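Researcher: Next sequence.
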Amino acid sequence: MKGRIPQAFLDEVLARTDLVELVDSRVPLKKSGHNFSACCPFHNEKTPSFNVNQDKQFFHCFGCGISGNAISFLMEYDRLEFLDAVDDLASTLGMEIPREAGTAEVPVSSDLYDLMSEASQYFQQLLKKKADGGKGVDYLQKRGLSGEVARDYGIGYATNKWDGLLKALGGSSDRQQKLVDTGMLIKNDNGKCYDRFRERVMFPIRDRRGKVIAFGGRILDQGEPKYLNSPETPIFHKGRELYGLFEARQANRKLKNILIVEGYMDVVALAQFDITNAVATLGTATNEFHLQQLFKVVNEIIFCFDGDKAGLAAAWKALEIALPLIRGDRLVRFMFLPDGEDPDTIVRAIGKDAFVEQQNQAVPLSQFMFKHLELGNDLATADGRSSYVARIKKLLEKVTDPVLKELLVTELGERVHLSTDQLNQAMKIEKSKVQQSTNRISGKPKTITPMRMVIGLLVQNPTLAKQVNDTQWLEHVSQPGAPLLKAMLEMLHSNPHLTTGALIEHWRGSDEHRQLTTLVSWEHLINDTEKVVTTFCDSIDKLFTEIKHIRLDDLINRQKQKLLSENEKLELKQLLSGSF
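Model: Next structure:
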């Protein structure tokens, strides 16, 4: 699945996807004139300002300014990465993502995902059939789990046989090798294969698309290891995945927050009490990638730790990782449990409502940071306050959000009885200036130049490209926007059926993409089709004249310095005669 996706494939996916149908499947749309409208799913509003244009295959909210095509919508609404959004659209259309040749990365065979799905079904069937005398069912019942939770999380059972999975799925040497590749079988030095997971309750680990990529097995009785995870494979990297994230998103269309707990049983035990916002790392500490992934799903993350020394140490590591990632409305809080307790035991003891209340009372990151660093520092003394400030300074250097940094410095000043300016000077922290955010709702460009007019009309009406026969006159033009206009025209000459949504996709991830997205929602108040064509042609003429004069002045200056080549002399002669 790795490698670069050909642009032609993205064009085809967008051409075959009806944005109105896609959005309407998640946000009910109503016909509103030429467009379709709804209350924006990305911010709270009472009056619909979210519009979808079927011709342009583009959406825009006049309230919060968000806009884009089908890929952009899935990335925002379903909180998917770019590749996952493309894969989702392609799968719906029955298309398989190709990869460009010549990349260093090798595509992963879809057979590996298929085999993992078969393995998951195999383990679930063994649990339903009560294999080994129902040991798996007995264990889950002792832990208080219902059949519904086991079903929702795909929980299964692996018997004590060394070749149970091998015989069920490893029908050929090729399939056996792929089961080895996915970590489901182990091959010894003699080349013989046997099952990795035996006599364990099996928890399938799903990626963000819901595909099974690995397993975690919990031993039934005593023994080591208590939890056994799949090894690293071509489709599973434990430092990049979270158990229960797919299930949490399935159970909650709009997640308010996510609770990070320690293990699989904590996740499913909470689900038993209808608390379905929990996830767990896979034998690793929470890392930056995990938090980045979660912040694409929710704006608030709550860490759940034991209140003992080890729990506090783990919480502190999590704080240090989270600090650089907090900005805007992102929140991180900490929930500490009584010593010796875990989410499973606590929720059974106090019930759902009390547990959720404790979750809602979780300690904010800043409060935990200040309180934790007070340990060992007597703030009643000058020495204690000085040491305290020095330790805080190291953490403030990690903070990237200027507003958060200002607020933390202010709170620190209140704790050590110093003004913000005194602290900034003492710690030599450059006073942060809150940058004024650009207005996302901008309805029009700052200045209506001929170049902006041409590009704006063209991105909104790609068929206008046929009004321009060639792009030679844009060669060697230093004027801002000229390279973009030239690329757009050449692209539309080669692909005349591109919609607005497909056109801007060619610039995703670049500054030009942001500029084009702004221009798509530009209200130029030219509604008549003929007038749009006339205005475009007039703007092209003005732009051509403007560029010609700039080029003429440049060539005349070069002539005075005797720097003209033979071709430039001919070009100057043509410009002066008006025959260019």
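Model: The two ends are 50 Å apart (CA to CA). The chain has five domains: 7-92, 110-236, 245-369, 376-427, 450-577.
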